[in-house]
Design brief:
It is built from one helix and seven strands, in the order E-E-H-E-E-E-E-E. It has 109 residues and is mainly β. Strands 3-4-5-7-6 form a five-stranded mixed β-barrel. A two-stranded antiparallel ribbon has the order 1-2. 21% of the residues are buried.
């Protein structure tokens, strides 16, 4: 939540990451959140992890600072309950998403 979205000199909007967030780049992390599926499969290989529970299947729950793109291997079974996911975090300066979790797997809470 400490990451801010600002208008850059090139007039595009993008993130400004605090030092603590930048230090997480390429680190193994565990994240707690809610799955937002990107397809209709029972097991999700690529989904968004949100800091907030989804309230509408057509709406994002918050801005990009509270969403993480997750690339899971093996796929993770979809649930409406909160989940803990572990993987390698990428902090992204020039992408549609601000964060990406790769080699992700379900973790025990």
């Amino acid at each position: 939540q400490s990451t801010k979205t600002v208008q850059k000199p090139d007039k595009k909007f993008g993130p400004v990451f605090p030092k603590e967030v930048k230090e997480l780049d390429k680190q193994q992390v565990r994240l707690y959140g809610f799955m937002m599926p990107l397809d209709q499969a029972k097991k999700q290989k690529r989904f968004l992890l949100s800091a907030y529970p989804p309230h509408c299947s057509f709406c994002l729950t918050a801005g990009p600072e509270s969403l993480v793109e997750v690339l899971a291997d093996p796929p993770i079974e979809f649930t409406f309950e909160p989940v803990v996911i572990s993987g390698r975090l990428a902090v992204l300066e020039n992408d549609v998403v601000y964060y990406r979790l790769t080699n992700a797997a379900a973790a025990k809470p």
